[in-house]
Amino acid sequence: MNFFEIYDKEEYKDLFVVKNEDKFYTIAEILSIISPTIKKLKANDCDKVLILSQNHFDFLLNFLSAIFAQKEIYLLSDPKKAQMLNFDFIKLENFVIQEVNEQQTAAKIEKLDFDKVLINLFTSGSSGKPKHIIKSLKNLIIESLDTFKGYANSLHEKKLLVSTSTSPHHMFGLVFYIVIPLCHLKNLIIDTKEVLYPDSADLKDNIFVSTPSFLEKFEKYNVELNKPPYLIYTAGDKLKEHVFKYFTNKNIQVCEIYGSTETGTIAYKNFYEDNLRCFDLVNITTNEESQIVIESPYFRPENITLGDIIQLKTKNEFILGKRSDRILKIQEKRISAQEIEELINKTDFVKDSYCFKYDEKLACAAVLSPKGLESLLKNKIETIKTLKKQIKKYSEIIPQRWKFLYEIPKTQTGKIDSLKIKSIFDKNISLPVIKQITEKENEASIKMVFPKSCNFFEGHFNKFPILPGVIQLYFANMLTQDIFKIKIKESPIKKMKFSHLIRPDAEIDLIIKIEGKNIHYQYNKNEQICSSGVLTQD
Questions:
Q1: Is residue 205 scored above 70 in pLDDT?
Q2: pTM
Q3: pLDDT level of residue 126 (50, 70, 90 thresholds)
Q4: Which DSSP string do the residues of 318-377 spell out, in sequence order?
Q5: Residue 190's beta-bridge partner residues?
């Protein structure tokens, strides 16, 4: 049952649309809540609406209000990017629910022309340059009906909640978390409680919309999953084999989606070994370079060519190959960054890696295995030499610049954050060796070592090196933002206290706790407090 077609039918008014906290809201209740906002939007001559809502309930209410006011919608997950919009717009953020008097008339909601309601999204490609993608509501509805109909037919009268750990400001979250439930009210209800931590998630009989980077945490922390989801939708990057099989072995259905913001959904698979299979309304071919060419009613242009090279197995089934846009020219030779990563990941020192061109050289961000970490703590230079020697057996071009990270940074949509990785290389600062990160809700513990080779020990002090206070603050700030995905104020420090010195090669525990807007951090050595401070969220 499509919300956008049955909202004004009396017989459907009591159908549930959304669960917020402990309350379920019907179609009639949602229309009543958004009616004042629809009237305000209609009275405003500006035809463009920017939705910045971070709370999922606010987002849904604002999204529906803008649609029924027949405004053109713009979605941005980062409010700071609003400055790139060089036109007038109405900004919607926190939704204010107004009490409506009996004398007040409800907003008159006219029948929608799905093709004329436009949704604008912005995404960053590997270059970081924002891409502007325009879809119609019709595109999203067709995609939602087509991609879920197989599961809808199997559910019969069963009702499921749809939860997410990702943002509805991006195409994947918007379609699978918002529009699919709205198009299948018979079976689905949107649950607005955002899933922030795997171990605290109650996903029993839910459809869980998530990214590979978030799903990796379930396996990484061996989450019990006493309340398993009915189905997991994931997209943004390839789900690693061991993570895919972790859920499969627990009898949890996984649907890995292949697609892009431009094309929408293209294909899916339910097991790691499967080929990707196109959805019914998607047609694919290849061009002369074996790149995938997509034609479907999920987007506005006639067809779109992506940078992915594929091998067609049947008319609607294929194997995903390497991306043509990851071919790099280094030392007058063309190499595949993806192939080099595969070589690096096969060494016994590395679990994961990302290669890119940096200052005309090949650079590598690597996540080390326990054996690699042990080697790094003994001698960083020898570790790099060993890695180069192993890679040199198979490739003439090897990385010349290295950074060793705890994990490869990912964006909100689960894709590799190439800009973040580049910024780490841009900073001429050594990184600590992070041995373990333990996360809980609003709390994290990071076990780390600052090796003697770190460049910030130079001159501080020559005969008795100690870890500078500014470096302690820097990494407390950086790791807080990385782990909790929050922003810290530019002048972040509220208070700071130093109790004991931190020396090179000492194993340190950094404890981070979030309390409201305050972030408390503490460096401990053998349960002895070395320093502490309070940062402030932006």
A1: yes
A2: 0.85
A3: very low
A4: EEEEEEGGGEEEETTEEEEHHHHHHHHHTSTTEEEEEEEEETTEEEEEEEE-HHHHHHHH
A5: 18, 162
Name the percent of the chain lying above pLDDT 90.
75
How would you class 473 by CB atoms within 10 Å of its CB: exposed for 0-12, middle for 13-18, buried for 19 or more? middle
Domains for the chain: give ranges and CATH numbers: 331-427 (3.30.300.30), 432-538 (3.10.129.10)
- Secondary-structure percent of the chain, ordered helix, strand, coil, rounded to 5: 30, 30, 40
Residues 6+ apart with CB under 8 A from 198: 214, 217, 218, 221, 223
- HSE-up of 319 (CA within 13 Å, CB side)? 7
8-state DSSP, 274:
S
SS3 239: coil
Q: Do 351 and 345 form a contact (C-beta atoms < 8 A)?
A: yes
In the structure, how many helices (H) and strands (E) does the chain have?
13, 29
What integer is the mean pLDDT of 161-174? 95
**Phi and psi torsions of 383, nearest 5°:** -60, -45
Instruction: State pLDDT tens for residues 189-202.
Output: 999 999 988 876 78
